[in-house]
Amino acid sequence: MPHSHAVIFDIDGVLLHLTRQEEQRFFNAFRDAAGIAEHHINADWNSYRVRNDVAIAGELLERHLGRTPAESEVWAVLDHYVDSIETGLARGGLVTEVIDGAEALLTDLAAANKFHLGLATANIRGTAEARLKHAGLWGPFGACGYAESGGPKTEILGAAVAELRDANRQPLAPDQIVFLGDQLGDLDAARNNGVHFIGVSTQPEQRDVLRDNGVEIVVANHDETAATIGRILGL
């Protein structure tokens, strides 16, 4: 039976903390798989044209090679990154950190049997799946957009919404969908796709940024997120 509403999640900052060790493994992949010296790698995610793992990989390689990299060159680095994350999680060198209340929120939404759950993340699928599985959060997501979409979060969320509509026997209107994100790019994606938005951040300064840019509902953790989603959707 099709669900009557949908909730789509970003991962980093919404379901999982992005740890310093996880960040470092992403940028180390360019050193190890492409020979780019560390001092040529900017670890500021917002310094890149598109905040998306695939796009960042392409931009870094373009700077290093002086030309547009082949898709195979981009994925040689990204495959190395996925392997590094999977190995680190399996051997204990990495540990995922779950946002407070995220597990209970997913459990409550799934138990309500009203919501189609999805993901819209700038992670590539391999690392998204590995990290969520390690955290015990993988499984309930039926409509997903990943960095493989290649563009900004608007396109990634659009891919998740399109997949959601294909999977649901009756199309969902945008006002039946809520997206949870922590960055201004997530806010833009929600606005561009016409869906409701909840800002999530454990960082007070980031919550202020979201509010200052017009986000009406901003939460620090997920203690009341399920109830908030219900109010937004009129349930």
Mind explaining what this structure looks like?
The strands form 2 sheets. The protein has a 6-stranded parallel β-sheet, sandwiched between helices. Strands 2-3 form a two-stranded antiparallel sheet. By secondary structure, it is of the alpha/beta class. β4 (115-120), α5 (125-135) and β5 (141-145) form a beta-alpha-beta unit. The model has no long low-confidence stretch (mean pLDDT 92). 48% of the residues lie in helices and 14% in strands. The chain contains 9 helices and 8 strands. The protein folds into 2 domains: 5-18 and 96-232, 3-Layer(aba) Sandwich (Rossmann fold), CATH 3.40.50; 20-91.
Summary keywords:
235 residues, alpha/beta, Rossmann fold, 2 domains, 6-stranded parallel sheet, two-stranded antiparallel sheet, 48% helix, globular
